[in-house]
Amino acid sequence: MARKIAVLGGTGAEGSGLAHRLAKAGEQILIGSRDAARAQETAKQLRERIGSGAQIEGLDNASAAAACDIAVLTVPFSGVVALLKQLKSVWKPGTVVIDTTVPLAATVGGAATRMLGVWQGSAAEQSQELLPTGVSLAAAFQNLGAEALAEDAPVDCDVLVCSDDEKAKQVASELVGKIPGARALNGGKLENARIVESLTALLIGLNMRYKVHGAGIRFTGLALK
Questions:
Q1: Which of 215, 225, 218 lies closest to 182, judged by CA?
Q2: Which among 31, 53, 211, 222 has the fewest CB atoms less than 10 Å away?
Q3: pTM over 0.90
Q4: Which superfamily is assigned to 4-210 in CATH?
Q5: 188-204, pLDDT tens digit by residue?
Q6: Smallest Cα–Cα separation from 20: which of 215, 195, 224, 178?
């Protein structure tokens, strides 16, 4: 049976961009949203764009989370705690959650180039605390912008994957590999997500100063197999 990937918050720019890329690579996608009708409309638009064979369905967040094998968390940081508390009883054991969240001040009305302080150290570590036993988490995709994901061209960005769970790290890295041009790098333990998340604010500043939309990160000198 084909695995199902839920993109929670999938009607937003980052979520719909990732859904587009993964569906185009042949994955079965569940678009999750607070509003099921909005999720269904986004799914319809993506199916029309990708063409025949695209497997994309729209559901409310809870239904998508309950049905999936992998969940990609793309909601704004300000809504993460409420969502994960709502979903705590619906996850299937063995589900892998991939957290793309960045605690930007913009989510509470501040500047997009500033970070909020998170008691646990990072958005990903906060999410880990809110998941039940048997559900693993990896942090990834924080530095891959929505504008680049929305296009069809290869992206120019490395993606750091951080996790304390090797299975979750492997799954997240595999999904990175589905996006042409993206390269998954082992970012180490989940606590390193606090460094990776802060790079997003830096990239936003670079985009603004250089008047571009797709600034990404590349690491040199790595001989990867």
A1: 218
A2: 211
A3: yes
A4: NAD(P)-binding Rossmann-like Domain (3.40.50.720)
A5: 999 999 999 999 999 99
A6: 178
